[in-house]
Amino acid sequence: MTTKENGNSLNKHVSGTAQQWKEQARNYKKNRKQIRRAQKFAIELMGYMDEQGIKQKELAVLMDVSPQQVNKILRAKANLTFDTLDKIEEALKVEITSPQIKAKPIEDSPVIINRMKVVHIKGKDIQEDMVSLMTVSKDAELETTIETMESYGYTAAQI
């Protein structure tokens, strides 16, 4: 093989490796949510195994799977099915809580037009009506509605 052929072979290898990295990055971005869940579960599982003194090979035997499968689970590379979760529960004699449905906060809050009085004191009182746009959203801990906001309605004289 000539030097030129070696160079072409190396370029093909490097270019192929770069394409693999790009593909891995695309897959990670696409599956980011699932990967985070799997990582969180893997960290919890490793912590529990550490506390109990259970080795990966022992867990594999208890689950009746290969050590490579347990390794994939602990590296968050395995697709965790309910069947796999059931095997982990039975092997470790633990309960893995089921996924729960939680309402997401409303991102597209309605825009409410609110009239407010602006008071500015600089030598003399200047008052004017002003229309402003206020975004009102519901907070999980504090219910904010127009009705509850009225109880906080202070004028400049009261403050």
What does this structure look like?
With 159 residues, this protein is an alpha+beta fold. The chain folds into 2 domains: 3-92, lambda repressor-like DNA-binding domains (434 Repressor (Amino-terminal Domain), Orthogonal Bundle); 111-150, no CATH class. 51% of the residues lie in helices and 15% in strands. It is built from 6 helices and 2 strands. The chain has a two-stranded antiparallel ribbon. A hairpin with a 1-residue loop joins strand 1 (111-122) and strand 2 (124-135). Helix 3 crosses helix 4 (67-74). The radius of gyration is 30 Å and the shape is flat. The N and C termini lie far apart (88 Å). The model is unreliable at 125-133 and 135-140 (pLDDT under 50).
